Amino acid sequence: MRTRLLLGILAVAALHAQVTVIKNATIMTEGAKGTMKGSILVRDGKIAEIGDVMVPEGATVIDANGQWVIPGIIDCHTHIAVDGNMNESSVSVSSMVNVKDVINPEDISIYRALAGGVTVGNVLHGSANSIGGQTVVIKMRWGQDADGLIFQGAKPGLKFALGENPKRSGNPQPGSNGPLRYPATRMGVEDTIREALNQAVAYKAEWDKYDAAVQAGQHPLPPRKDLKLEALKEVLEGKRYVHAHCYRADEILMLLRIADDYHFKIRTLQHVMEGYKVAKEIVASGAGASTFSDWFGYKMEVFDAIPYNAAIMHDKGVLVSLNSDSENGELMGRLNTEAAKAIKYGGLSREDALAMVTINPAKQLGVDDRVGSIEVGKDADIVIYDKDPLSEFAKVQKVLIDGHKYFDRDQDISGRKAMEAEKEKLLEMEKQDQPPARRGGAQ
Amino acid sequence: MIKKLLSALFLFAAIAAAQPEPTAVAIRNAKIVTVSGPVIANGTVVLRDGLIESVGENVSPPADAMVIDGEGLTVYPGLIDALSTWGIPAAPPAGRGGTAAPPEPHSWGPEDRPATTSWIKAADLIQPNDRRFESAREAGFTTAAVFPTRGIFGGQGSLIDLGGPKIADMVVVPSLGQYIAMHTMPPGAGFPVALMGVIAYVRQIYLDADYYTMLKAAYDRDPRGMKRPEYDRALEGVLESKRILLPANRWVEVERMVRFGAELKQPTILYGMREGFDARSVDHLKGKNTPVLVSLKWPEPPRDADPDDVDTLQVLEDRAKAPTAPAVLQQAGIPFAFYSDGIDQTRDLDRAVKKAIDNGLSRDAAVRALTLSAAEIYGVADRLGSIEKGKIANLVVTRGEIFDDRTKVEMVFIDGIKHTPAPPAAGRGRVATENRK
After folding, report:
1. How many CB pairs lie under 8 A apart between chains A and B?
2. Partners of B232 in the beta sheet?
3. Angle at CA A140, nearest 5°, toward A138 and A144?
4. pLDDT exceeds 90 at position A230
5. Which one of B197, B256, B280 has the shortest CB-CB distance to A88?
6. Average confidence score pLDDT of chain A
7. Mapping DSSP to helix (H, G, I), strand (E, B) and coil, where does residue A156 land?
8. Are residues B261 and B314 in the same domain?
9. What is the mean pLDDT of residues B64-83?
10. Would the CB atoms of B192 and A90 count as touching at under 8 Å?
11. Looking at beta carbons, which residues of chain B come within 8 Å of A105?
12. Which chain A residues are within 8 Å of B227, Cβ to Cβ?
């Protein structure tokens, strides 16, 4: 009886704890309601009400008077939280490897990203291979285990890469002693992708034939399961997105032709620095574009990059996002100001600019029914800034994911002392554990 | 002086040869820590033909037995190193010497079976005269689960008794399971160079092994009209292995490898466990039927480190708390055993176990982890790990409680044969010096 009573009390407490109200903020919803003043009611991890909200009894109230609220920032291209090498660069087609297998929930980059308002990241394999590895979408639920970071329900992807990076290993490099890898040219990159897809088509045919025979009540021997071709088969079946690293207009068109030939869609063109030259073709293909704000000239194939790329593609009707390509979470933590640059370069509206790091990448990742804007029914992934989030003076105050607070600036600052003290204590302990210094020389 | 030298040499020879003993030995008047049952404060244990013939308070030594008076002595089951490389010759030094193994062929993917020697068995590599056996015996070890540990699929471990002199006398179980490491290829050697590549490779191997089994069965049922399955020694080796050992030091790796072992549908043992103290490690192990092997090589600050480099809080915490892992695992009821992880000096082994005891593990639990728990983890508790009638006669006899600073291992019995430790290291050192003169 007493236990049951206790459980009852706990259950009620838990119920109350699951309701949060963010009061009196300026909200850039990035949804139908535009930018507005008001409150947000969060219940059971979802956004329940927006506007004039009655505060239910027992709700956690966050007073955001004078502060700004935006949907959690989404980075469509990041390399954080990967244990080990992010490139299985030994082979040109490495679709058997999966970033999901090596997610490291302790990577401090997750926390850096979170502290910059990022709640969702598309964690990609590197760009060393024509066809890279399988990718995974995570939420920055700092403190949870690897499984707890995975954005359940988000479609997995596969990385493709064109241009200088995948062909580099085909050319002699200082310090490398292994045999050279095919391809060494852009033509070879195209051939490598087509050859892999040819194999995948044959593999899929084998399995389709087998599945049909089983359906017909026969008992044939199944084909061998090949993890490399399995991922490509999923691409052909539309079960896996392709995120393709690319720079130049010619190679962008080349890839779109490949996709046409093999009847699949490129989900996102990544970097896509010359996208502004072929925006019409990109729109026609249905691919999204995820680019940098204003990077240029860091290698030969980036010499035609312009900071107006995002705005021009946007104006032509391409679904555009801005990404960090971050390995350490540094730029990832400043995506709000990366978005703001699209106002300076190209004159986008405030909402359209912010959309490039919120609802647009959500659409590109196929998770816009869940995240990307502040709308009733969506996941309560919410960032609170002290100032206008499109200003470089704005600081993230709090970040909620699924209604839970994962970052709090005040708590972070006040907790630093305790961590320093803990470190000092451990260092001191270690010093005392050390054996006394050896006496030198003869005794 | 010469006399001293001669007697020392004689003692040496005696240990090396372990001359034949009478077939029966009885230790009486000793404290007997059976591990499987209550401690016998004053009892007798009788060994015959390599087995424990009887043990108890009221057992009297048989007439033909060599009787050892156990007054002041404590008898434990022989200690087991649950993951060892003792006896396996070190890799020939790489470099210009010309003796190094030829470089592995370049690997272009899983089909090239990179860094794989799943078919080799430790029992076929072990050199019975390995000097490490002697120092291990002096620390009370009578048994080791020795594994080939090179590459990704290192090979199959063998459970061996550390007696000798022939390997045939030593092997208890020839194949214990497969040693797997998250080993990436050196630069330029090919696939895999990333951790995720290693995982993909291991996953593909187990898919291939299933497929291979199915093809072979189909061929055996009716070979006519069917192309015979291509022989694959890598898969043969994997299929011979009844369990796998996967590495996990950080709690993140515990989560990853517990899940991976379940995905591969293999009975799994994790080894390493530097962060076994972390509640998250324990959470991921609870109820998973995944025993763990805790490395006795506790993390230490790097030697000659730049004094300006201060380690992160996490690294400091790992070093401070790693030795508490055994106590935490014990509390949580996670089955665990210890392994030497490259430690092969008697004193270092003693100290390493002692450190776990100093960090909260009870002496009884330490003894159990080094005996019966290790035997249970490898499914050999019916023959090893405790002092019970019918089990293999592996014992360690100490004066004082084991893993105590003042305690001395008086003798060990391996398959019923008595081995007496050499005199203290200092004495040996002097002999060696005088010899040179």
Report:
1. 130
2. none
3. 95
4. yes
5. B197
6. 93
7. coil
8. yes
9. 97
10. yes
11. 252
12. none
The per-residue pLDDT for B428 is: 38
Element (H, E) at A270: strand A268-271
pLDDT of residue B302: 86
Residue A17 has pLDDT above 60, yes or no: no
Q: Among all residues of chain B, which has the CA nearest to that of A106? A: B252
Domain ranges in chain A with CATH number 3.20.20.140: 73-371
Q: Are B26 and B46 in contact (CB under 8 A)?
A: yes
Q: Do A106 and B250 touch (CB under 8 A)?
A: yes
On whether both B56 and B193 belong to a single domain, the answer is no
CATH number of A73-371: 3.20.20.140
Strands B40-48 and B51-56: antiparallel
Residue type, A290: S
Is the pLDDT at A156 greater than 80, yes or no?
yes
As separate numbers, helices (DSSP H) first and strands (DSSP E) second, chain A gives 13, 16
pLDDT of B393 strictly over 60: yes
pTM to 2 decimal places: 0.92
Query: What ipTM is given for this predicted complex?
Result: 0.93
| Model pLDDT, residue A173 | 76
Same domain, B314 and B422: no
Q: What is the CATH number of domain A1-71+372-409?
A: 2.30.40.10
Distance (Å, whole) CA A23 – CA B189: 59
Helix or strand run (H / E) with residue A234: helix A227-236
Instruction: Quote the domain boundaries for residue B36.
Output: 1-78+386-437
In this structure, the answer to whether residues B419 and B304 fall within a common structural domain is: no
Task: Provide the domain count of chain B.
Answer: 2
Does one domain contain both B155 and B16?
A: no
Taking any CB pair shorter than 8 Å as contact, residues of chain A touching chain B are 82-91, 94, 96-99, 101-102, 104-106, 125, 133, 145-147, 176-179, 221-222, 224-228, 419, 422-423, 426-427, 429-430, 434
For B24, phi and psi rounded to 5 degrees? -115, 140
Give 3-state DSSP helix, strand, coil % of chain B, rounded to 5.
35, 20, 45
Residues in chain B with CB shorter than 8 Å from the CB of A227 are 110, 200, 203-204, 207
Residue B81 pairs in a beta bridge with B144
User: pLDDT value at position B190?
Assistant: 93
Query: Who among A83, A90, A145 is closest to B191 (CB)?
Result: A90
